[in-house]
Specification:
Layout lengths: L3 E3 L2 H8 L10 E2 L19 E2 L2 E2 L3 E7 L6 H6 L5 H10 L14 E7 L6 E7 L4 E7 L3 E7 L2 E11 L4 H7 L4 H10 L14 E11 L2 E15 L2 E10 L2 E5 L19 E4 L2 E5 L6 E4 L2 E4 L5 E3 L4 E9 L3 E7 L4 E11 L8 E2 L4 E5 L9 E8 L2 E3 L17 H17 L1
Antiparallel strand pairs: 1-10, 2-10, 3-4, 5-6, 6-7, 7-8, 8-9, 10-11, 11-12, 12-13, 13-14, 15-18, 16-17, 18-25, 19-24, 20-21, 20-23, 21-22, 22-24, 22-25, 25-26
Length: 412
Amino acid sequence: MPNHKIVTLSFVVILLTTGCRDKISVRESGQRTVSDTVLNKENATPSLLYGIPVDSFDIITGKIKTNNFLSKLLLIHGVTMQELDMVLKNSRSVFDVRRMRSGNNYSLFCEKDSLARARYLVYEHDPSTCYVFSFRDSLNITPYLKEIKKTIRYASATIKTSLWDAMMNDGLPVSLVEKLSDIFAWSVDFFGLQKGDSFRVIYEEMSIDDKSMDVGRVYGAMFTGSGNTIYAIPFIQNGTESYYDSKGNSLRKAFLKAPLQFSRVTSRFSSSRLHPILKIRRPHYGVDYAAPIGTPVRSIGDGRVVQTSFEDGSGRMVKIVHNSVYTTAYLHLSGFAPGIVPGAPVKQGDIIGYVGSSGLSTGPHLDFRFYKNGSPVDPLKVEAPSVEPVSEENMTRFEISRKVVVSLLDTF
C-alpha cells in the first residue's frame, strides 16, 4: 500500500493560525447549475447530475466519435437543426463546438415519453469542465465546473535508486515529485541521492469525482540524507510565499543545483579523463548529464547570454554571465530556445536550450560547465548563497509556522 494518509482537519485549523495563507479550504466548489433548470421547492430536493434533476429524464451516455457531427447525434433524438443552430449562435462566446474532442464522454438527457426528445446534452470537455447544451426554453450553452475536492495528505518515501522511482513505487502523484524537485532544487543534489535518503511531505491532493487529479500546495516537507535534515517551511513574506529552512534561511539559492530537472550524472569534473571518442586523456571541466534529446535545459541563475555558437568539439553551446564572478556554459545542445541570443537577459529556471548530441558526443547528454573568476570549478561542489532570509520583524510569525510544520513532519 502507498505510504500516504489523510491529515485530520485539526491540521488545517492549526495552519489557519500560522499565517501561512489567508485561507485554506478542504473542499472547493466551482459548480454552476444550468440556468433554466426549475425546481419545485415544495418537493424533496431532487438528485442532480450536472445541475439537472436526474429523475426527470432518461440518460443516454456515449463517447464523441471521430467525424460524427453533433447534428447527427441530436437529430435522431428530436432536436431540430434550427434549435441547434440557435444554441450555437447564442453561445459563440461560451464554447466553440469545433473544440469538441473525439473520445470524450457525453450524456443526453431525454424526456420520459414516447418521443424521448433530448432536452440537454452534456459534453465533458476535460476532467473539471463540462458544457451543458440546453434545448428547452433557453437555447444556450452553460459551463458546468465539477466540484474540486481538496484533501490534506501526508506521504513519505525512502530512496533505493532515485526519488522518482521511490515515489512512483509508493503510488504518489507525478506532480508531487516535480513540486519537491522545485522546492529542494537549490538545496538537494538530486543526481547524488544515496540509498536510504528519505523524504516526508504534507501536501494538498486535488480530486474530482473521487479521482486524484493534481497536487495543490505543499504545506511542508523534509529531506534526510548523509546525516543531515533539511526542512521546507512555507511562509509568506512581502506578499510572496516561499520555502525556508528551520532557521529562516530561504531554500532558494542564487544558483540551481542542476540545469536539468530529471537526469543522471554520467561523467564528473576531472583533470584527466579518457575521452570516449578521441581515446586520449585530457581534462573534463564539466559534468555530463544523460537525458533524452529535446529535454529542456534551464539556466541555473539570473544572468545575460554572452555566447550562442557551434564549435567542433562542444557542438551547440550557450554561455551565460551571472555576475562579475560566475559564468556557466551548456554544451552539445540540439538547439537553442526562442529568444536565446547574445545579449538576451535570462532568469533562473528559464529554458535556454535542449539536450542533444552535437559536436564530439557519443550520445544525447548535456555537458554543463561552471566558471568562477574565469577558472573552471566543479559544478557539483559549488555552494551558492541563499537569497533573502526571513526578516527580523517576521521572525515571530515564522517561528509559529516552523513549530507547527516541523512537529507534524517529525510526528508522522
